[in-house]
Amino acid sequence: MFTASRSARPARPPNRPDAGPQPAVDSPGRVDGMVLDRVVLDRGARSVFAGLSLTLSERRIGLVGDNGSGKSTLLRLLNGLLLPDAGTVTVAGLDTRKERRRLPATVGFVFQNVDHQIIFPTVREEIAFGPIAQGRPKAEANAAADQLLARHGCAGWGERAVADLSEGQKQLVCILAALAAGPRILLLDEPFSSLDLTTRLGFAARLADLDLQVVMASHDLHLFDGFDRLLWLKGGIVAADGAPGEVIPLYEADARARAAANRGQP
Ligand SMILES: Nc1ncnc2c1ncn2[C@@H]1O[C@H](COP(=O)(O)OP(=O)(O)OP(=O)(O)O)[C@@H](O)[C@H]1O
């Protein structure tokens, strides 16, 4: 457990040396890892990261922090949707600036806003798209999409129009579409916010069983149960980094103190 101040290289705990980009490894239980090295990023006129360095090698990593603290921006750097203004981001050995096109085959992403993700009219097309783009025959990808839907309690959804689904159902389709492509790394940005409790609990349990690396941003702190590591982002810096059981009390105490201070203001 450690806290870090705004600096080009936040301190790392001794048991997490910066080993640099890791080679891709396919053995179960191993992760490819991601490395941010002195990342600088402005969005509009706003500086979001001013020299962020992180090595992300645990299998389950959570991101917490206030609105605007940089969680989505960090995830978008990891999937290559955003490129750093300075510094480097390396994902499973791929420099996102130089090898952006190779990232979709490795990194799955579930957007915070489903409308930014869904592009096809029907559920089956949406889920089958990733495998087809990777070269899988269409009939096979469609059949796999239907099987995936059935496994998640959505048998018969293949022909449904995505536009007619509820927000939570759309979110479910987005998660299944990300999984269908068989990523080794899954980035989830508030993936369960619209899901009902039963579906949310089911997914949280399935997430624990998936043999891939997961980085998930959420305001639902219960979802980090069983995670290996939790990063608290505050204004683009890592305010705390450690086991969820250590970081969550710090984050909650800070949030309560600030909420109380705000109440005291006119
Ligand atoms: N498209 C954009 N253009 C300009 N600035 C942006 C854009 N998206 C985000 N920002 C800014 O980047 C900073 C980080 O935003 P980000 O979306 O990463 O926060 P977040 O922690 O994911 O917040 P939330 O919990 O609300 O999802 C904020 O100051 C925000 O105003």
TrEMBL record:
This protein's UniProt keywords: ATP-binding, Nucleotide-binding, Transport
Disordered: annotated segments: 1-30
Gene Ontology cellular-component annotations: ATP-binding cassette (ABC) transporter complex
InterPro entries registered for this protein in UniProt: AAA+_ATPase, ABC_transporter-like_ATP-bd, ABC_transpr_CbiO/EcfA_su, ECF_ABC_transporter_ATP-bd, P-loop_NTPase
One example GO MF annotation: ATPase-coupled transmembrane transporter activity
Homology family: Belongs to the ABC transporter superfamily.
Protein name: ABC transporter related
Species this chain originates from: Xanthobacter autotrophicus (strain ATCC BAA-1158 / Py2)
